[in-house]
Write a structure and sequence with these properties.
The chain is mainly α and about 240 residues long. It contains eight helices and no strands.
Length: about 240
């Protein structure tokens, strides 16, 4: 176990340490959804707020860490303008309001983004037992968990008709990233280029750095089709049965 979670060796993609933490993330998500399913509505809502508060505290720990370790802060990467960091702002909108676009946004955008980050994280040279890698895995687990929990426990039902609003909201959240990228030379939202070892890096290997956003866009639409197809099909079947 010491060798798996070495403090000195950089963690590798799909290494034993990475796979163990992926399995732990899946177990945590399944466990909370199972627990929520056994509670009444009030209990499920209380647990949802606890999950949101836990995620918020975990994400804020990153900025406290940067405050205590200013040498490790980089303005080009450390501000909350990547898609998953934007969850700090989109998740309370989804949890505490009844706006269905916000709820669909965290399901259709934040959740798959975090899932891809868990599967192909921007690890760099971080060892498994490091603040950076552990924070990445834990925070992204909560980003995946919260919308899954909300759907499975009946807080909202994904609606494909709201995807235009979701797409518009995605474009709006990209505006600060676009401005920052232009003025400070950053790469928030990975708009200006791929990151080696991540999903963006893999796509760039196939298409080249200049064109990788095209398959990224196509992949997004494909993910949306997978996420919404079961609900759209169920609605269509129910509509046909009602018409009979």
């Amino acid at each position: 176990m010491t060798a798996i979670f070495s403090r000195t060796q950089p963690v590798g993609l799909f290494s034993p340490a990475h796979l163990i933490l992926l399995a732990a993330a899946a177990f945590v998500c399944a466990s909370f959804i199972f627990i929520g399913g056994r509670l009444n509505h009030k209990g499920r809502k209380r647990l949802l707020i606890i999950l949101w508060a836990s995620f918020t505290a975990i994400e804020l720990c990153k900025y406290i860490y940067f405050f205590l370790n200013p040498d490790e802060f980089n303005i080009k990467t450390g501000l909350p303008f990547h898609l998953c960091s934007v969850s700090l702002f989109t998740y309370p909108l989804a949890v505490f309001t009844e706006n269905r676009v916000f709820k669909n946004f965290i399901y259709a955008v934040n959740m798959p983004g975090a899932l891809f980050a868990l599967i192909t994280p921007d690890i760099g040279n971080s060892p498994a037992v490091s603040f950076y890698f552990m924070h990445l895995m834990i925070a992204h687990t909560f980003i995946v968990l919260i919308p899954l929990y909300m759907v499975c426990c009946g807080f909202f039902r994904p609606d494909i008709r709201l995807l235009p609003g979701v797409a518009l909201m995605l474009l709006v959240t990209m505006i600060p990233a676009l401005l920052l990228n232009k003025f400070i030379g950053s790469n928030y939202y990975f708009i200006n280029g791929p990151v080696k070892g991540t999903l963006t890096g893999q796509l760039a290997e196939w298409t080249g750095d200049d064109a990788y956003l095209l398959p990224m866009t196509a992949l997004l639409f494909g993910v949306w089709a997978l996420l919404y197809a079961p609900f759209a099909a169920a609605d269509l079947i129910a509509k046909k049965e009602k018409a009979i």
